[in-house]
């Protein structure tokens, strides 16, 4: 009689199942097309939320711009605190600084640049170029409504005055585009990794397209100036 008894078929099946499970756990899985639709995850298994957070910061900065602006105008015209109102209005550009710092921190942390980073650069560019005009627009209406100021100036309707207006607005758009493109190029150079900043190159072309379309308005008013309406 043998000293050792071989394992039963059931025991052999259990051991084989354990071995197969180990192989499945340790063998790298072949990527499939469905993987492109799965959310990217970090090492700890949590869903990557950096881009969503940055978009939320952009929205918060837009809301913050109007909140700080309204607070400054309210202090100036409603509370008659002109110095406090002036200080609050001077704080309006700080909103752009917050967004710039948040974008830089995100990229510094190793994030891959995406749509939100390009949108942040475009937002800052247009906010800087048009911010003063927006403050003046709101100030005129606030002063007229609450402080007996003159009626707000309207956009010129026709003639050379309208043509100059359209070229002036286009000039602001050109400045905004230059600032935004400068920020995009600075991000690309700062990160120094083409694979992580590929999406930003697309924003350069996108901003150029917007500026080219914008140019149609001043060019049209230059070639075919609008005339006063003949209606009574």
Nutshell version of this structure?
This protein has 232 residues and is mainly alpha-helical. It has helices at 9-26, 50-78, 82-90, 94-108, 115-146, 159-191, 198-214, 216-223.
Task: Describe the protein in words.
The structure is a single chain. This protein is mainly α and 232 residues long. 69% of the residues lie in helices and 0% in strands. The chain has 8 helices and no strands. The chain has helices at 9-26, 50-78, 82-90, 94-108, 115-146, 159-191, 198-214, 216-223. The longest helix has 33 residues, at 159-191. The radius of gyration is 30 Å and the shape is flat. The termini are far apart. Residues 1-7, 9-15, 21-25 and 31-47 have low confidence and may be disordered.
Topology:
Blueprint: H1 9-26, H2 50-78, H3 82-90, H4 94-108, H5 115-146, H6 159-191, H7 198-214, H8 216-223
Helix pairs in contact: 2-3, 2-4, 2-5, 4-5, 5-6, 5-7, 6-7, 6-8
Terminal-residue CA separation? 122 Å
**Radius of gyration over alpha carbons?**
30 Å
Number of strands: 0
Low-pLDDT sequence parts: 1-7, 9-15, 21-25, 31-47
Biggest sheet details: none
Structure keywords:
single chain; 232 residues; mainly alpha; 69% helix; disordered N terminus
